Amino acid sequence: MSEQHRERSVTFNAGSGFYRPKSRIVRDLGILAAAVYRAEKGELRVLDGMSATGVRSLRYWQESGADWVTVNEGNPDLLSTLRDNLRELLPNYGQVSSLPVHRLCLEKSLAGDRHDLVDIDAFGSGSAFVQDALEVTKIGGLMYLTSTDGRTYSGREPQKALRQYGAYVRSHPAVQEQGLRLLLGTLQQQAAQRNLGIEPIFSFFWGDTCRVMARLVKKTQLTEENYGWLGYCHHCGNYALPPWRKLSQSSCVHDEQPLTLSGALWLGTLHDTEFLGKMLALAKTWAWSDVTERLEIMIAENLLPPYFFPLKEIGYRAKIDLPPRDRLITTLQEKGFQASRTHIQAEAIKTNATMGELEAIATELSKP
Ligand SMILES: [Zn+2]
């Protein structure tokens, strides 16, 4: 007999399936967003494309109040475990299938069956399922997608990023955020091909993987300001956002050195602050304290530039020990800069100050 697991309000069997307790917070965020959506729209039909043990489906139903869950797991060996875990949900509140995701989405699309929330928790780049998600999500509905391919977003395999995302990305100190922006960028661009748009609800980096929750909207959102290029100067450690029309002249404004360019990426906000506020209120009601802490950081970071500075990098360049994060943030704010933590890395900050300004302030703080 396989082990019984408990996650938040649900109990289930993992069987021969894959269950990672550490990803609980990723599911928590999805459940919160779905619950906020259910409260706003009065209905919630979920498609869980890669269900594995069914823990997410079960939680969408039990915790978010889903009216219906389309549960799919491509591996037929998991079906009996899945059916067993979902016995209270079936057949009145959901259906189970074992199809490749592309086939499932094609069938749903041909039948005109669109869902309020589409969750495809895949391995790999995630871009393979963007078209599928766009096919089966309602206008106004949400899509929850995953990318687990660190080698691609970190700039170690730029040719692979080119194939998967149509973007060429390079290495710099904020590549984890680049992973989120790659996935959002391809989602936005492919929605734009259909004369639609997406609005990020939240973007979450956790344990080397990127998750994005985005709303599908009727109006195209892609512009040359929110979809473009991130430059990094390996010489002085500053970032830059060269506009499309000035790409040929892009060099670092601080030292005129050539910029390492990554793009095209989503450069707009990672989250919807108002929506995060509603998720936060709910998380507080449910006493999900580790989630509330994350959500607070995500709200704080949302309006800052599309990159971050690791403390290690600041310390290395200033030739000092690791600067104290919270004092650095407060000092920057006192001096009139924007500054916050980032949910992506504990030992890093987001700010609109330059590396030179950061080095000077960190050096000042390091004096006894
Ligand atoms: Zn420079």
Task: List the topology elements.
Layout lengths: L3 E4 L2 E4 L10 H18 L3 E4 L6 H8 L5 E5 L6 H7 L8 E4 L3 H10 L4 E6 L9 H7 E11 L2 H4 L4 H8 L9 H19 L3 E10 L2 E9 L9 E6 L6 E2 L19 E7 L6 H13 L3 H13 L7 E2 H8 L6 H10 L4 E4 L2 E7 L3 H12 L2
Parallel strand pairs: 3-4, 3-6, 4-5, 6-7
Antiparallel strand pairs: 1-2, 7-9, 8-9, 10-11, 10-12, 13-15, 14-15
The site of zinc ion has 8 residues, from loops.
Structure, explained:
By secondary structure, the protein is α/β, with parallel strands linked by helices. It folds into two domains: 4-224, Rossmann fold (3-Layer(aba) Sandwich); 310-368, N2,N2-dimethylguanosine tRNA methyltransferase, C-terminal domain (Phenylalanyl-tRNA Synthetase, Chain B, domain 1). The chain has 13 helices and 15 strands. The protein has helices at 24-41, 55-62, 79-85, 101-110, 130-136, 150-153, 158-165, 175-193, 273-285, 289-301, 311-318, 325-334, 355-366; strands at residues 4-7, 10-13, 45-48, 68-72, 94-97, 115-120, 137-147, 197-206, 209-217, 227-232, 239-240, 260-266, 309-310, 339-342, 345-351. The strands form four sheets. A seven-stranded mixed beta sheet has the order 5-4-3-6-7-9-8, with helices on both faces. α11 crosses α13 (355-366). The termini are far apart. The structure holds zinc ion.
